[in-house]
User: Fold this.
Amino acid sequence: MEKKNKLIIRDDLPKGALRLLDSGSNEGYPISYDSMKLLEVGYGYTKWEIEVNDNTKNPYGMIHGGVLFMISDNCAGATAATLGHKSVTLNSSINYIKSAKKGKVYATPKVVHNGKSTLVIEVTVVDEDGDVVSTSNFTMFSLGNIDTYKGDEK
Assistant:
């Protein structure tokens, strides 16, 4: 296990995945949440955290559902990258199970299907006590191999 810039890297990963995941940039996100962090990465696995604070809470004092969806979507997309896919979300659903009002929440994936053109990834978000806050399912569409994909060049 290699530790690099506080990011725990558990496996030998595609170079494109490491470039994407270790860029340290929030560029491309609709809203910058500096408190969202990638903690750990391995083949088919990423672990994310976000702090429950005034910037991530809804008017009722609990973490906003959109924040839970965002960290779950990032977890699914980053996990697909560790498997060698440059991907986008094709379909998703989320179930909000329990509110979180303080501390941090953590998102982790379970890869259900890793195909050539689609992936199915389940993401579970838990609070600091390990209680489930949300569960979600993501169908990701693979744009190709993350190390060789050329579609974003102009």
